[in-house]
Amino acid sequence: MRLISALILLVLLVVPARADAQEATPIPMTPDAALGEMRQLMDEARTHVDDARRYAEDASSFLGIFEALGLSVTVGGALLAAFGVLRLLSAQNALTTTREKMEAELIRTRQRFEEELSRKEAELDMLNQQLRMQSEASTRAAAEATARATLALSLLPLGERQYRAQDFDGAIQTYKRALDLADNNPVTHLRIGYVYTQSGKLEEARYHLNRAMEIEPNFPNAMAALGYVHRRIGEKMPDGLEKDAMLNEGEGHIIQALRISPMLIDDDGESWWGSLGGLYRRRGQVDQAINAYERAALITPHSSYPFSNLALLYMEKEDREKMLATFKRVERLAAAETQAEVDNYWAYADLLASQLALGKAGEAEHALRSVIDIAPESSPYVLTMLIDTLTRLTKALGGENAAPYIRSFIDRLREEIAEREERQKAREEVGS
Prior knowledge:
By secondary structure, the chain is mostly helical.
């Protein structure tokens, strides 16, 4: 079938070509020529038929190859399609499984997140509540601290009035109450330290003055008062290096305080230059002592205290005339002070010393009684200091032979001190 089709196709291709050639050159042909040409055509046709058969066989072979390839492609495509479908189904199943896992994990994650969020919110609420409670507690504590500090400050004037009235024990108790309310007030520690000093309780005084310095390191009032306490402690120590060290420490504190505030005065209204002068006098540094007391006199010109000490120092410089002139000034100033403050026992002590220096023993009797009457029971320091002053005065005037009347005053002061000590022991025994 394939061969016949090929021959027909060949004849159709050849005949039109010959016809076209004849039409192009219409030459008359003889029978022999026509027979020869026919034979030639038959040979050519035979040749073409052979070629066609060969081509047909080749085509048939190629067609078989293509049919085989087509079948292979068809079968392969089907196999591939089946394999792809299986892979697709497997991928879809895996995707579905993964999606389900992801959705489940997402649900679990959301649940954990919500649980964690709830827990954090609860913790935050608790923290806010704690902070609110702490804030309220801090506010209450601050309010209470403010109230306590205010009450403590209100006690300071009371303690000062008690000290002025020579009620040293009452003043100490008031200041202790103030410290119970607010222990961080350097002024309270200064005040109680000063009262302890005047009461002769020097270790207690040193503790509170050091405490004031801890709270306020550059507090000149506490600094000078601490120096004075060290001076007092050193005066009671035996001669030696320890005493010198204590006095040197006292000097350093007072000088440092005066560098900060040269016009500084103590709770009795006296210049701290006088305390420095007293330290120099006890060391035998007369010129330095005179200089210090003169500076004190410039700061407190209406006080008899610096002039009383200057008078005795002038006598140590063998200037008797200047000593007596200065004692006259002391008498005038001390008398004015006693009239202004009837309970100023220091002024009465200066008045007593000046009157004895000027030979007015009769008038000095009134001053002595006043000193004994108003000097605080809890402070023997006032009377002992007065005995020291009268002893120095006796020496300055030329000894007991030159001023024998001074001895009786000293003896009476000593008797008063002994009686006070006995009364103090009796009070302590009753209290125990």
